[in-house]
Amino acid sequence: MASNEAQARLRIDEMLRRSKWILHDLDGERPNVKVEMNIKSGRADYVLLDQNHQSLAVIEAKNPKKSALDGKEQARNYAKSLNLEFVILTNGEHHFLWNVTFGSPEKMDIFPTQEELISRRNWNPPADKIESIEIDKFFL
Hints:
By secondary structure, the protein is of the alpha+beta class. Helices cover 29% and strands 25% of the residues.
């Protein structure tokens, strides 16, 4: 691994720890992050797990000299292979959370916690509210 990429991984690991993700077995707590996980479409840099240790989100890490968004299609393929909605794109400096089911990557400063991702996964807008939204005629 190139030194720039190694530095990015160190920053990513620290950001995960700050958001209460467990990377290694510490004090009897089971890790909820898999690193360098082999999947049928390649090798995911990180896979975040829910409370039942099922895959919740995939993180695609790029070298800091590249845009974090350079990994979009690769990450989308990983998410599809794992049947996941959420991808985190990062180069260690810039970070994006992306719901690949709908929406575009959203810039973020800190990684979401396990609880925040689970809440997003479980969010289900009421259909009657969506049907009643008026769309402006100039909306593209």
